[in-house]
Amino acid sequence: MAPSAFDEDYRSLTQLSPALTENKINRALSDWFKESVVFTRWEYVGGIGKGDSYLSDVRKIRIHGVNRYGVDRNIQVILKTIPRNICRRLTFRSDQFFRNEISFYTKVLPNLLKFQSETKVKEPFDNNVKLFLTHCDGLNDAICLEDISCQEYENIIRQETIDLKYCKATVQTLAKFHAISFAMKDQEPEIFTKITNEISETYYDCKLWNWYKRFWHKICNIAIDAVEKEYPNTIYLKKIKNFAVQDTYFKMINAVNNKQNAVISHGDPWTNNFLYKNKNNIISTKIIDFQLSRSASPVLDLSYFIYNSTSQELRVKHFDDILKYYYEVLSTQIKDMGSDPDRIYSEDKFMNDVKKYSFFGLVASFEMTPLIMLEPDEAFDLELEGNEEVNIDELWNIGTIKNKENRRRSADNVVHCVDNGFI
């Protein structure tokens, strides 16, 4: 939302969110710069692409202050605020997602990083974006993070799949993140249990079925249609018709509830939730948007990433290599942090989880692929009338995939799962 939507009074941030009071900004600036800083003004830098955020309003802004000597101190941030539009906020349950992400940034991540800092790990996970401030009351929720586009990090085009080099950089980030959980659960189980209780399931839960079921049936039909058009009269069509049914939603619930090899997972790790920097042909990554963070098998994250961000060509050539690389990074990190990966999560256990849970990423792609492939001018209108929630199916009003290339991308996810015995 551009400044013209406001009164262009840059002396206050309360026009963006009532929670962003002068006192709150003063504290955040002083904490950030480690000296007393007083807020003076803000400026609008830019927005995000249409269709890139449904759960929140997102802006890039620069916040200025002065220290005791009158020297300007400023920081460019990404500010996510709960939607002002009441219908949108209620329909998407934005308060629950904000609460989950704020708990992650304020209660979970600090404990994970503290544990890691006390180990002798050679290449620690430092792929998070630094938090500037948060506010959580269910009505004026806000999350403010450092904008690392100033450090040359950027998103890739969300409609495109990624090549092997970017894929391995992303997988490495996930493995390093997951490894902290395994080591912490082994060495500090009580603290780990405590932080897992700070986040909750926001998507796959029996109590959410009525919220999701109409949309569920729609995305299942879209997946079936894609296979029927691209692979008619094949085992793939037979398999997807048997798989894309109501019972599979409850298999997803069982997957997120199985805590046997659970880690703190991201929950929504497709490429739009990673930022990349390519310097001298070395890919660096940062991971963002922990609104769906949960405690579950790491394979839920890994399969979600694979089926929403890679092509069938890459999977056919490199799937086994990707799995091997993920586990190599994971086990090395666990060992460097002082635990025995063979004891707490052996390669055999990992591969069993791959066989057991890779369907999770396929199911996620039923929803994600049609949404990912939307062009900006096709994105849904989120300025909704009324003060009551509507069915989510009425907002995410997507139909069967018309473009053959995009339809093939959806169908090929099914092909890969069937060929590997995952469904």
TrEMBL record:
Write down the Pfam families for this protein, in alphabetical order: EcKL
Q: Which residues form the CHK kinase-like domain?
A: 143-336
Matches recorded under InterPro entries: CHK_kinase-like, EcKL, Kinase-like_dom_sf
Transmembrane segment boundaries: none
The protein's name in its UniProt record: Uncharacterized protein LOC106116431
Which species is this UniProt entry from? Papilio xuthus
Q: Source organism lineage?
A: Eukaryota, Metazoa, Ecdysozoa, Arthropoda, Hexapoda
State the gene name recorded for this protein.
Answer: LOC106116431
